[in-house]
What we know:
Largest sheet: 6 strands, mixed
Number of strands: 10
Strand order of the largest sheet: 6-8-5-9-7-10
CATH topology of the largest domain: Phosphoribosyl-aminoimidazole Synthetase, Chain A, domain 2
CATH superfamily of the largest domain: PurM-like C-terminal domain
Oligomer: single chain
CATH architecture of the largest domain: Alpha-Beta Complex
Helix content: 25-40%
Order of helices and strands: HEHEHEEEHHHEHEHHHEHEE
Bound molecules: adenosine-5'-diphosphate, magnesium ion
Strand content: 15-25%
Number of domains: 2
CATH class of the largest domain: Alpha Beta
Amino acid sequence: MGEFELIARYFKRPVRRASLGVGDDCALLAPRPGMQLAVSSDMLVEGRHFFADVDPQALGHKALAVNLSDLAACGAEPLAFTLALALPQAHDAWLAAFARGLLALADAHGCELVGGDTTRGPLNICITVFGEVPTGQALLRSGAQVGDDLYVSGTLGDARLALEALQGRIALPADVLATARQRLERPTPRVALGLALRGLATSAIDLSDGLLGDVGHVLQASGVGASIQVEKAMELLASSAYQSSAGGQFEQDFWRRCVLAGGDDYELAFTAPPSARAAVAAAALQADTAVRRIGQIEAAAGLRVVDAAGHGLRLAFPSFDHFA
Ligand code: ADP
Ligand code: MG
């Protein structure tokens, strides 16, 4: 199978909303009047972001999911994406499974594949997504206000738990590992929540590198500080390992690290004023995504994690950094 046959077989599909899709030198997109294009790229590299033996269908899903998560964090509606793919070889079964996982998620979000590049090389997947957001309504990192509530969607920690187990640092019961692994390998981008939070959230970010580090980006961009109540944050931990007796097998610090600095969760962290609590609850309901209030934005710079008595905890959990 040659390069062009490969593209035609797995990645060329009829266009829908795009003006021109795969097959020419450029794709053409026509954002609707009054809309801005939201654009983001994320690259997945073998050995860095996934293991060589990962299920290709899950990999296809995740490669697009992490990109859709960026659109979600901006409150943008998915429109289209491009796929730049380096492959060691054109293996039919692998490509079919990869395309299945990728395109199923794409179809679920009405996000069409309009182009890309295909080359031989170490396995590397780079997707660029394009979304639409009404002019001026994108959710940004820079809008958090003193007095705002700090929220997180869904659950945190299971992706890190799975990673610890897959890298052999901990042992987990098979059923617990299977659930946690699902979160690591098939994250759910919170697109519906991002859309529902337009005009409501003052700032937002998606959690890819760990809660503390990513919220830190919001604080820096907004020129504010924050406190997080550790008990409330720990309620974000869904892991059945934690709920069961196996939870006692690990120290409290281990579980805190999973939640506060786990990474790869692809939930949204966002801020909104206390006057918007009912509206935030309604948005969460509309998006069918749980949200939890875990802290508040404060004038004093920095991010404090406090216990029930309001005492600051000393935590040294670095968030993920490829070059640290
Ligand atoms: P060019 O050399 O002009 O950049 P290519 O020969 O690389 O174009 O690609 C031919 C067409 O196939 C282009 O429209 C390109 O966008 C598309 N394409 C290439 N690789 C992929 C891929 N992995 N997924 C989707 N479309 C692709
Ligand atoms: Mg090319």
